Structures are given as structure tokens and as C-alpha cells.
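worker-03 picked up job from queue 'complexes'. Input manifest follows; two sequence lines, order preserved.
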Amino acid sequence: MRKIMTSVLAGIGLTLAYGTSVHAQDKELTIFWAEWDPANYLQELVNDYTAETGVKVTVQTTPWPDFQTKAFTEFNAHGDAYDMVVGDSQWLGAGSTQGHYVDLTDFFNQHKLTDVMAPATIKYYAEYPGGSGKYWAIPLEGDAIGWSYRKDWFEDPKEKEAFKAKYGYDLAVPTTYAQLRDIAEFFHRPDQKRYGVAIYTDNSYDAMAMGVESAIFSHGGDLGDYATYKVDGIINSKEAVAGLEMYKELYKFTPPGWGKTFFVEDNQAITGGLAAMSMNFFAFFPPLVNKATNPFADQTGFFANPAGPDGKRFAALGGQGISVVSYSKNKDESMKFLEWFIKDETQKKWAELGGYTCSQAVLKSDAFQKATPYNKAFYDTMFMVKDFWATPEYAEVLDQLNQNIYPFVVGGKGTAQEALDKTAADWKATFTKYNRYK
Amino acid sequence: MASVALTHLDPASRAAARGWSDLTIRNVFIIPTLAFLIVFNIFPLIYSLGYSFTNFAANRSDPWQFVGLQNYRELLSDDHIWSNFVITAKYVIVSVAGQMIVGFGLALLLNRSFPMKGLITTLLLLPMMMSAAVVGLFWQLLYSPSWGPINYVFGLGDFAWLSNPDSALYAVAITDIWMWSPFVMLLSLAGLSAVPQHLYEAAAIDRAGWWYTFTRITLPLVSPILLIALIFRTMEAFKTFDIAYTMTTQPTAELIAIRLYKQAFQQWDTGKSCALAYIVLIMVLAITNLYVKYLNKVKER
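worker-03 finished. Artifact:
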């Protein structure tokens, strides 16, 4: 028995000793991201870095619903499990003010990144507080809300004729929310198992909020003044109310049981031949042009979020920047990696692999815009994006919005004005609690 | 005195056969268990009680302050929280009542000999052996108005079980009934098989009817064990998180445990969530105590 114990202990000791010595020789970097296709593309991209430098880079992933919780649990414990994290844009406030992220301002200025990356991506993925000139992340994956649609349904001469007769204008890709609504109503035929439109309704994280804010922004509304935290009269303005009412209107034309839907369901609406149009983040469009995953791949088209009644046109921003975690033991090595990542040729390769680069040069290139059926719509969108609150208390603010708008949109309870008045009051109370009105 | 008791060994026990004294058993099994309990259970419990009187937030490095009973005051005057409690109460009543009826009914059916009884009993126990999250995801598919078999079988068209604010909670409760009725069935079966056969024989001689036998013999003798099942299921139903969380995001089905999760791990309002956790704990304790009191009364009879 004693012999066994001794040998086991010796074994453990040897493994530990060997393990640490290996660790010291071969540098390893861990990047944390959510589990989705772009993370696989990133792993493919960073393999090149390993080939060039010998530094092994692993992209560690976790399912979307756990992403925020897992990242912040690690941050709060000041853990060094991740050297870099590709964090949501809303995390910037908490990441920067709580000391989780390394300040990248010098890195930004040194490499003149403000000229390299698309302006919106810098504003929303990198800078905090807004307009401060302090940067905490390098824009990595650009993303925004866009739409896919069934080209064959839209181009069917019979449908076109019937549409014109009913609405008095030609059936085409919608350029306004009013047209989007008409088309959704037109194609909504439950008896034929065909439905008008698929939108986000999941309220467990930010899905529904992204859909609703896209409508609010395009209707000329805003969520609040991000600099002064003024919300009353903005989030419940008549423009914002009109945006929310439009979203509720669209919900009428969704497939049955559309009460907890996010990117998976919205893509299924197209691949399953359920809906004429479907909202989704651009990052989820690649499977829609792949015949193996979408039997209607050849008949699927894409368009940018439409304008509101006054011609204003915006889309909710998704996407993420990559930040260095301040508790990492490999901060210098991480900075070297970032230097490699921002190179033009790396960004080009990133776009080729399927990543949504934020590099202006690559975005503007003809090669990029023609590479996929949705890249042009993506390019158009990236210059008209707006984002949610990025304050450290964004999660509370998001939950309050969800609590107020979900019963109205999905449950049909109350009015849009009531839902947004309540939101304004809740937000004001939250911002007061965090001393935002000094 | 204690050492005398500890060194005393039952010579027939297996430990004695191996030469283990009670002292060794205490050192090897009981002390580690106690240490584990204290470190991972009791210490966090007391620590979180402390947090519940502060405005501590686990994702901030700002210093926290002692706020007294403010968290409790705010929670107890928050309409949202009360509506979560009402939802949870509805859920507990529907799901536990359903489980008791279905579980006890199944046990009555199984409490006789028939071919393949063992196999059927085992198959009936399968639902409670599954992971709750998996059950939730499966039932989400079963309820789907577009391709789910439930609407197809019952001819409900495209009735949206989980997207309809009025039905979502009950849809989750039905799933919970499906999953946990076997537990009640198992306990009831144990109780039923312990009822002395001669009582039934005596009743038969007296020509007692089925209903009379059931209410005067079966139910009184099985009720203590049924009450234990009721206590377990009420406690569990009160804390339900996984099934409901995976199945729906309807605010009308937001159980108190889900609210607590959101407050603790999405909003990182640690102090307030600790307070809420304590409120829930006190409620569960109170309800359990009522049951236990009643159970003792039943046993005395």
C-alpha cells in the first residue's frame, strides 16, 4: 500500500514538474469567445500565427447563453484562464471601469487604428466612454442586424401581380419598414404553412432588444443620451413608440410559437421554407448560402435593415472587439499577437475565411463586396449602425427593457407607450442608483 | 465518556471484521464529510447572509457598503418579485398536485401482480432519471406548433403552448409532472406494499366496498409516505430552474429561481440576490415545517 502511495505521489510530482517546464518553454495563448462559426474561422486564422511564431493559440468557446456569465465569472475571480477575450460591445463599460481589460490606447495611437478600422466599429467596439479617445479593444468581428429573404417568392410573376393589385406598388426588396410590413402581411398564409417574417423574440439576453432597437433607431428614436444618461422623453418619445409598435406589428406575421427565437430559429425560418423574410445578424448568414445547410440557398437573397418613415436608416450593432485580459500572465505575448492581427494581410485572410473584418481597406475592396451575396449588404450596414448602452450596468438596463417590452410584443399586454414609459422610469431609477446624474 | 463510546465496536459489523474501530470510521468518513459540508455549504450560507445586508456586486471592484435591511425592503416592495412569487405558487400547486394524482394513480395500478410488472415499472421510472435540461429541450420540440407531435395528436392546430403567455407556465408544469410523477409513484408503491394484506381480507369479509376500503385502509396507511413525497416535491418545485429556463422566456413563466439567477449572474446584483435567496429559503422552510408538523400528527394517529 505504502509503495503504491509513494509511486502515485511521485507520478503526480513528475507530471507537475514536467508540465510546468513545458509551459515555460512553449508560449500558449488562449482566446475566449462564444461558440459559433466565426470562432472556428478565427481558430483557422490563428493557426497561421502558430506556424509563423511557434506560439500556440487556442480559441476556447462556450455556448452563447453562458458566454457573458462565464467570462465575467472569470474576470471577477481575477482568473488568468483567458489571455484575450472577444467580448460583446456592451461589456466595454464593465471591462474598462472594473479593470478587467488592458488599456489599449497607446497601441491604438501607435498603429493609427482609427484610420485603419471602420469608424462605427471603433466607436462601439473599442472606445469607452464614448468620445474619450480611450480604447480597450481591437475591432475583430463586425456584425449588425440584416435580413435574408426568399428571392423566388419575391420574383414570382403571379405574386408580383397580386401584390401590386393589393398594395399599389411593386413587390421588391423593402426599403422602408412600412413596405417590410406590407410584404410580411402579403406572404403570411398560415393555411399554406407560409409566414410573413421571422424576427427575434428571445428575452433571455439581448436578442429581442437588438430587433426592437433596430426598429426604434430607423423610426428616428433613440434609447437615451449615452453621454448624459437622459432617458425620459427619448426612449419613450413618439418615434421610439412608433418603432416598438412596428415591431409588434411584424410579430403578427411570424410563424406560430415564435415567442423564444434567436439566430437558430430565424435561420430555420428560411431553411425550413417557413418565412418570406428573416432578421438575423450577418454572422449567421454563411449557412444560408450553403446548399448543404439551406435547400433554398440559391433562392435566398439579403438586404440591409430598411428605413423608417422619415428616411432615417439604422441597424443594431452586434459584433465584438478583442481585448487583453488584465489578469493574464501573457500580456506582452498577447500584444504581439494583436500586432499580427491588425496587419492588412491578416485582415484580408480573416475576411476570406468568413470573418467579418472591420478593416476599412478590406471592406471597401471589390473582392470583399463580391465575395458573398450578403457582403454588399454588410458593407452598407456597417456605416449606419447604432448600439445599445455600454455602461457597466448594461445588463440591468437590458433586463428592464426585456421585462417591459416582451409582454407587449409577444403577450399583447398594454401599449407601446406604457411599455416604454415604464422602461424610462426603470432606467432612470437604475442610473440614479449608480450615481450617473452628478 | 465519548472515547468509550467511540472505541466500542459491534463485533458482528464488517468494519470490525476488517479491524476498523469506530474512531477510524469517524476519521475516514465522518470528519471529511463534515468538513466538506462546512466549507462548501455552511460557510457560504453564512457568508451570503452577510452579503445580503450589503450592496456588494461581484463584478465590481468598488468598495461595498453595509445597507442594513434595504435589500429586503426593496425586494419585498417590488411588484415584479411578488409576481414571480405568485407565478411560482401557481406552478408549485399545479405541478405538485398533478404529480401526486398521476404518481399515486400509477402506483395503485401497479400494486398487483401482472406479467412484465418489473419491466413496466422500470420503464415508468425513466423520465425522472433524465437530466432536467434535456427534458426541457425535448418538450420544447414536442410542444412546437410547427412540427411538434403534441398538437398533431390532439388536433390543436398551431396552438403555441410556450409562446402564449397564458399557457406557458402550465406547459412547463405538465413537463414537470411527466418527469416527477414516477418519483411519487415509487414512494407510493413502497407505502402500498407495506399495507398488511390481512386488513384487506378482513374488509372483504365485512363486504366493505372499494371506496370504503380505499379511504379507510389504503389512504390512512399510505398517507405518511405520501406526505414525504409531497414535502420533497414541493421543495423541489419551489426551486425549479432548469426545465423552465430551457423551455420558455415568457415573463408569465418566470419562476422565482429564474429571477434570482438573472439578478445574480446577469445583473451581478450580488447583495440583493443573496437577500432574495434568503427570502426564498425562509419560505421553503416555513412550508416544509407546516408539512412536517402535519406529518407528525398523521403518524400519531
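worker-03 released lock.
Residues 2-25 of chain A form the longest helix (24 residues).
The CA atoms of residues 255 and 423 of chain A lie 28 Å apart.
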